[in-house]
Every structure is written in C-alpha cells, then in structure tokens.
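Troubleshooting log. The previous run stalled partway through. Resubmitting the same two chains, unchanged.
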Amino acid sequence: MSFAANLPLFSIVACLICAALSSLLREKAAAWVTRILALAVAAAAAAVLVLALKTGQTTTYRMGHYPHPWGNELRFGILEPLFSGVFALVLLACTVGGSRELVRDISRSKRSLYYVMCDLLLATLLALLYTNDVFTGYVFIEICTIASCGILMIRRIGRTTLAAVRYMIFSLIGSGLFLIGVVFLYAQTGHLLMPNLKAAIAEIWASGQSRTPLMIAICLMTLGLCIKSGLFPFHYWMPDTYGYATPCSSGILSGLVSKGYIFLLIKLILNVFGRDVFYASGIQNVLYLLGVVGMVVGSVSAMRENDIFRMVAFSSAAQIGYIYMGIGLSPELGILASLFHILTHAITKPLLFLSASGLVTASGGDKRFRALLGAAHRNPGAGFAFAVGSLSMIGLPLTMGFIAKYLFAFAAFRENLRLVPTLLALAVSTVLNAYYFTRTLIRIFNTRDLQPTAPVRLRSQPHFALAAALLIGANLSLGILAQPLITLLRKGLAMVL
Amino acid sequence: MKSKKKTKVSERLRAWDQSSFDLTDALELNPPLPKAPTPEDRESLPVIDRIEARQFAGFRKIYPWLAGLLGLVMSAFLLLGVLKLPPYGAADNPPHNEVMDRYVGEGMHETGAVNTVAGVILDYRAFDTLGESHVLYTAAAAVLILLLSSSRKGEEPPELRRIMEDDPILRNTAKVVVPFVLLFGVYIILNGHLGPGGGFAGGAILGGGLILYAIAFGYESLERLINDRSYRVTIAACLCFYSAAKCYSFYCGANGLETIFSTGTPGAILSAGLILPLNVAVGLVVALTMYGFYSVFQRGRI
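Second attempt completed without errors. Output:
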C-alpha cells in the first residue's frame, strides 16, 4: 500500500491530538497550531488526491487488523481528498481572516478553547468525508454538533445564547433521527459498514418484501441530515446562528459544517442506500421540491432583512436549497452540480461574512443598511471582497456561482417533467439574489452624504487581506478555469457510482 | 395589571437579548437585573423577535396543536416501522450474522479480552470509540466555554456552603463511602477487559466519588489534586496517548504489520494488548470530565 493512503488517518489523528494539546496552549500558540494544522491537512489531501488520480479507483483503508464487516474503515476516491483540502483551506481562511473579530468578541480566557473547537471541527469534517461506516459518521456528527454550538456561543451576547439553544435543539433532533435511522438499518441488515449495508439493502429491495422499515430508515437518516444542514423548512435556526456569531464562526458554520452533513448524505445515497433504491423511492422528489421552495423562500426572507449578516444568512438557506434541488434531480448530473455548488458556497459564504464584518466595523458597528451607506468607501478592501462574493452568489460569469447555476440548468435539460420548474426556480431565485445583493452593493458604494473619513487601508488589516485574497483567488480562478474541477468531480463521481 | 407585567417581562427579555450577558451571573442566587434600555437604545438597535412577535402572531396560537400533531405523526411513523421490523430476539434475525459470530466466537482469541464488549469497542471498532471519547472532551470544552467565569473568585454559593458544613451526616457518610467508591471505580476500570465494565463505566464511578468528596469537604481539599492546570494536562495527555496509540495500531493493521502489543493470556490482568491502557486513559478522562462538569456548573471554574 502506498504511503499516501495512510494520510487520511494521520490527518484525522493529527487534528484530534492538536485539539487536545491546544487546550494547554496560550491563544497565539493555539491559533498557529490550527493554521499549520489546516495547511498540513490540505497538503495531505493533495497527496491523497494524486494517489487517487494515479490508481484511478477508490481505496479502502482498514482501521486496524479487521476488514469489513468487522472493523471500521475509511474509503476515499477523488471527491473525499478534494473536498477535505478545500474545507481545510476555507477553515484556514476563516480563522485567519476573522482573527481580529475573535479578539473583540471572545474573552481572553476562552480564546484558546475556540481553536480547540476549530481543530475538532476539522477532524469531524475529515471523518465525515472519509468514513466508510455509518456509525462512525454518527459519532463524528455528535462532535460536530457540540463543537458548532461551542464556536457559536463563545461570543457572549444574549442573542448568541438564544441562537445556540435553538441550533442545539434543531441539531439534536437531526442527530436523533439519524441515529434511529441507523438503528433501523442495523436491525434489518445486521451491518454498519457501507459496502455490506449497500449489498443488504439491494437484496431487501429486490426481494420486494419488508420494504416499509427500509424506507423508514432511509427517510429518517435523510431527514436528520436535512434538518442539520438547514434545508427549508428547517432553516429557521440559520439567521440567528450565522447572523450573531463571530464572523469566523459564521463562515465555518455556513460554509463548512452544513456542507459536511450534505456530503455525508450524498455519500449515503451513493454508497449505502444505492442510487437505484434511493431514486426509486420518491424521497428524491421531496428533496427536489423542498430545495426549489427553499431557493425562493430563502431569497425572499433575505430580501426583507434589514441587517446585513442576517441577509447573508438567509441567502445561505437559499443556497442549501440549490444543493438539495440538484440531489433531487438526478444521480449523475444533478449530484455533480450539487457537489460543485457545495464548493462554490463553501468558498463564497465565508468571504461574504468576513467582508461584511469589515464593512460593519468601519461603520461604527451598526449592522443595519442605513448605517452601511457608503461603507465600501470607508473600507475599500472589504467592499471589494463583498462585491466579488455578491456577484458570485448572483451567478455572474467569471465566478464559481455562474458555473454552478450553469451546471444545475444543464442537469435540468436531461429531465422532462422537471425541466420547466427547475429553470423557473433558477430564474426566480437568481433575480431575487440579484435584487438584494445589488441593492446592498449600491448602498455600500453610495457616495451621497458621505462624511470624509480616512478609509481603512488593507495594510492595516493584513489578516483579512490574506484570507480575502485566498478566497477571491479561489473563486475567480475556479470560475474562469472551471473545466478541470468539473472533470475531477465527474471522475470522482464515476468512481463511486 | 397583566399587560403591565407582560411588558416588564418583555423589556427584561429585550435587555437581556441585546446587552452582553454572562451566564455565570446566573450562578449567583440573586442575579442583578440587566439594565433596561433607554428609548434611544431601542431606537438604534435592531427590532428583535420580529418573526416571533409580529409576523407570526397567529402562528403562536396554533403552535402547540401543530407540535402535538407532529409528535403524533412521528410516533405513528416510528411505531409502524418498529412493527414491521424483524421480531425482537428471534434466532434468525439479520444482526445474528457473521459479524456477531466472529465477535463472540473469535473475540477472546483475537483481542485477548474476555469481555467481548471491551474487545469490540476498543479493538474491532476502535475508531468509533476514539471518536466517542472525543465527544466527551468536546462536551467538556463546550461547558468551559459556556460557564467558565472570567473572575477567579468562583466559589459555591454561601448558603449552600453553610448547609454542607453543618451536615455531620453527609460528612461522616462521605468519609466512609468515598474510599470504597473510588476503589470500586478503579477496579471497574482495571477489570474492563476481564469482565463487565471498562473506562466509561469506571470513570463515571470515580467521578461520582470525587463529586461526593467535593460536596462533603469542599473544593479546596481537592484543589491540590485537581485544579485547572492538572485537569487540562491530564485530559490532554490521556487523549493524546489514546489517539497516538490507536493511530499506531490502525497504521499497523492497515499495512499488515504486527503491533508490539501482544494479546497475552486471556484472563490475566496484564493482557489484551492496548485495551487495558486505553481503559485507564478513558477512565481518567471520564472521571475528570464528570468532576469538571459539576465544579464548573457549581462555581464557574474547575
């Protein structure tokens, strides 16, 4: 076995060890540990990606001396290292770009605990991506839930406590449903490892008998992950959670944590339920419908917001709708588009939160649009970053958002019945996105009644500049040269299908 | 009268909602009321609970009914599933397959643990348990985030303290019981690979003993043993050992190498390879976390 195949295990363990050690360190040291860790994880992911491209098939990595169905396993093709690399870099960008706000929002004695939580979240995301065992998935979902609440409530204002309670309730319902689903599956198949589960489920489905409990198990697991990732109508925890957390947390929660759950769901659909069973069950139609409605409802809610953070948060609800719409459309092109949109959103949303925070700080800490008039002139760097993020969310060419929408539309053209609703939903949602993002852009670039103040230079906010450069660079380069990425995703998907 | 009271409550909620709020205040018996916002404050702050209060006023009335209905539907859905599952305890149930056969039949031979459960959770499916022990660590860190008081003054409320100091029954019972509880906890941990028990169960017992001691004799008497520093260092050391040891064993397993840990003679106290040291590490983490939860909830620090 090539040495690179060990790297996923080493990455996960390194994250866990760093998390344990960071609780002993001072904040500066803990911050550097997290940054170096994220870089190392990304480098390891690149090596694993090269390995997967070389072998051209998925690798199953035995965790210990026992193969499946007895022991735990990891399994990775192209998709897993690709996503873990991107997620690690986005986490790096969030923690670097939001470091000034972290100092402002978090009391000194708790700052190193923040980085503990970040390390744990990175470990969780990696485990959710790489696992080949549904119960391992559940265990790491638990860590993810608690750590997400941790980075949310560490900012001590009443609103975050309230948001954390709400998030916790939604999240625990989601985990509970997922666990009951796992129990149902185990009772019918006697397995927890994905390949064995897939074989057993296919057998039950083919036999035609006792399909009901199987369907219930699939429903419960899907529903649990939908609630946790904030699909309409379960998205009401989003505005508070993303809107009041410290910007770094908002970026991590919206960009990465919810995507980890969605990736696990895609993995379950392809590797556990089997795409034939799942796409014959009718659940995909429900996901499609909720996705389409979520795209419109999320955008309408965002339009009505008066607070820039809450607006961006509601726009997340709409983007989650896009992803689920793709999953509901079809297993090949639909999921391909969804995977691309997961990356788009993971790269764009943290940028929006970080730059919005820059704009708000330059406007005296007031998050309402009235106060943000002309904010981009007070902080040009943040204004530029927010503009790029907005354009990507609207889906203008040269950005990743455009490619994602193009892929969704492309996937829709293979459908008969759902072609028109999909295109219509895409159009309506795009117009609404364009409406509220353009309105915001006009406001922040407004020059009327502008008080002459010295603008905040990029040189005085090097952390933000670095993070924004990374995220903008990724967004534009992947938006302009999207074909290699799409080819990678397609190859990765073909490996799993 | 009622409406006046209502506005007062909503004012306080508003104040709580928008000002900075330290949960450790709630540990005091009579927390100071948050300052009511001045009219100007209210003007300049975002309107809270817009969704809850104004836009969905009707929704609040039907909410309990909807919640009840949803609960009923979910229960019916789950019960339907349970009815159609294979009957409980039947011999030919799907879980009675080759997985169980190997766990039960070969477990003692392959892992060296007489206790099959310990063999499964710490050897066959050790990665899950590695995650599970970090769930505990995450929870402990989250509780610290929530309740760690920034001041160093943290002590239990004086009323509670006086009650405890004047309680001879508590003190004398604790004096007799605590050593046995601790000893039993250690036994459960060390015996985890030989019989029912293990790190999680034994650690909980140890933690319970420590909490009882702290209730009866105060935290100061324990502080030489367990303080913020030793708490963090021990937990971090145990978890690092756990992760590193398991990483080594996974690495060896995946690459087809033999580990340096032998299974030994099943039944001997020093057997079952890594299971015994892992149980000790988990036990320490669980015990400290339990004690830590109690202490942080009670007085805002370890």
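Takeaways: Residues 18 and 33 of chain A are 7 Å apart (CA to CA). Chain A has a mean pLDDT of 92.
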